[in-house]
Amino acid sequence: MDLLTGSTHLHITTWVLAIILFLVAALASKKLTGVQMALRVVYILMIITGGALFMEYRDIVTEGGMYYDMKVLFGVLVIGFMEMILARKNKGKSLNIFWILFGVVLLVTLYLGLSGGIGMNF
Ligand code: HEM
Q: Which run of H or E residues covers position 115?
């Protein structure tokens, strides 16, 4: 599992890719089915790489209590909001509140990830 947990670069690659694909699909004027399918594949890679980090470090990072579980929860919430935005966009429904929630959840996830004590730390 060293490939998955030796550094956080693989996980970072997956969520950067996901955000790019998501923005391309969400901001396009028509439905980009191929991009949305690629995005779903990237979700799986993101969950695998994040899940590997979780299993590897959850016992080491003890200060902060439930912090580690929150990181996973918020990571999954980001995926949820991406899917909700794309589904509502394709149906022509309003998105404003979903964009706001997506932004908030994304920022919380970035904060929790970066304050985790492994990988990059600010
Ligand atoms: C768009 C969604 C996501 C974003 C923006 C995100 C962001 C991040 C960031 C910035 C880090 C820190 C990397 C480093 O310090 O080098 C990180 C680490 C991590 N991520 Fe994610 N992530 C996302 C999704 C997920 C998911 C779905 C999971 C779980 C299945 C997950 C689990 C983890 C774990 C366990 C860590 C290690 C935390 C640490 O100690 O730093 N992430 N993530």
A: none
Question: Is 109 close to ligand 1, i.e. is its CB under 6 Å away?
Answer: yes
14-30: b (≥16 Cβ within 10 Å) or e: bbebbeebbeebbeeee
Confidence of residue 17 (pLDDT cuts 50, 70, 90): very high
Which residues have a Cβ under 8 Å from the Cβ of 107 and sit 6 or more positions away?
none
How would you write 3-24 as a 3-class SS string?
Answer: HHHCCCHHHHHHHHHHHHHHHH
Average the pLDDT over 70-74 and give the result. 94
The Cα–Cα gap between 31 and 68 comes to 35
Query: What pTM was estimated for this model as a whole?
Result: 0.91
How far, in Å, is the centroid of ligand 1 from the Cα of 113? 5
d(CA 112, CA 32): 31
61 Cβ closer than 6 Å to some ligand 1 atom: yes
